[in-house]
Structure formats: structure tokens, C-alpha cells
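In the previous lecture we treated proteins in isolation. Real proteins rarely work alone, and many bind small molecules. This record shows how such a complex is specified: first the sequence, then the SMILES for zinc ion.
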Amino acid sequence: MIDTHTHIYEKAYDEDRDLVVRSAVEAGVGVMLLPSTNEEDVEDVWAVTEKYKGVCMPMYGLHPTEIGDNPDLQLDKILDFAMRHEPYVGIGEIGLDLHWDKSNIEVQKHIFERQIDYAWEHDKPVSIHCREAVSVLMDMFEKRGGRIPGGSLHCYDGSVEQAKVIVRKYPQLGFGFGGSCTYKNSKVSEVAANIPLTHILTETDAPYLTPVPHRGTRNEPKYVPLVVSRLAAAIGVSEGDLGAVTEANARRIFGLKE
Ligand SMILES: [Zn+2]
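The predicted 3D structure, ligand included, written as C-alpha cells:
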């Protein structure tokens, strides 16, 4: 299994990161993708992925809620860092967030577009954060005339109908499912049950979105099997099969070697 989106470079893991990585591997989660969020934590992402080479792999990007007064400069710094630190998996975490702040939507779109362009030009996959903004994202994609890199819609919160359209138009994109699919009344696993198996990716977004029954505590990549188990039940396949398929999906979409 693969955790396609986790922030275990954060301070919350400084005391026991060795154990966090080891217990993930022991739980069958052999690869973790670590996306940055701003121009400062790229250093932490790099350091942690250097330490756990082959298991933890870096992605670099500017998160929409991390946009400050001079976002173009922030992004220049991040892309410059990425260029000097090959190999890295892709560009992330990038996207749109209309939950926290709608006022800077045009700036968010500009910064997102720049990162999509960069990924496209450098043939890198992306990890996309899109909160309460799927229709805006779909409009942006429509205008790009097919120039959409592969990657993941992490923590997808759109509708089943929108997901079906995305699958049809952008087959290079997968959908990242994490702890929220285990929450009561969550419609997330309904999305998983209505898209092809080949588009399903697993993730944690640790330390956030901890799955049931550990909700309320720090999330960890070792909980990916709980996500697989919930999704497998919703879709009607075995946990083993879904674990294998989602791992193959992540390797294909993010270009990871066996
Ligand atoms: Zn994240």
C-alpha cells in the first residue's frame, strides 16, 4: 500500500519519526509521498525524505492556504529549491481552498495555474488540494485545453457526478481517499464505489483526518489499511485486492518504480 499524501515531516513527529515510519512499513505501507506546503517546509520535506530514502519521497509546492503577501516570490523560491533537489516525485501540495478564504480566489488561481504549468512543462505529476472548489477547478481545467498533468485530487470533496466527468475527461488523475471515508455520514466512499478501481488512491493527510477508531489523535501512515478496509467494503472487493490495485495506481500515476 502507498500513502500518497502525508505530512510526517511536521514537528508533530519530531519525537518518534523513526517509529512512525517503521510502523507504517510493518503495516504494509511501503511508500509515503510527502508534499510541502510553503517555501520554508520544503527543507523539512527534503531532510526527512533523504533520511528515509526509497520509503519517503518528496513533492514540492505552495498550498493555497499558505499564500502570503508575495506569493510569486514564495513560489519562485519553492520551484528553485525543487530544481536544485532532483529527483523529486512531483509538484504538491497545490490547489484551491474556498473553505478558509474566498477573498483571494484570483491569487489562488494564478498560483495554482503557475504550478500546473510547471508540472506540465517538466512532466511531473501533481498533488491537488481542492476544498469546496471542484467546480472552479473544473472550469480552470476546461480552459487549459488538455494541458493537465497526471496526479491526485487529494481528499476529494466533490460530487459523484463531478468525479465521473473528471474520470472521463482527465483519466491521468486519481482520487485520494483518506480517513474521512471512515466518518459517519461521509459520502466519500460513495464516490469510490462509483469510479473505476484504476482511479482510486489511498492517503492519510497525516497528522490530520485520522480514521475511525483513532479519531481525535494524531494521524499516521500506518492507518492506510483502515482506509483500504472501509473502501473495500463500500466497493465490494477484498481488502487484499484493493490494497494491490491502489498501490499499482499510485505507482502508475506518480511514476514510482517497483
Ligand atoms: Zn495535505
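Summary for your notes: The chain has one domain: 2-254. Residues 2-254 form a domain with the TIM Barrel fold (CATH 3.20.20.140).
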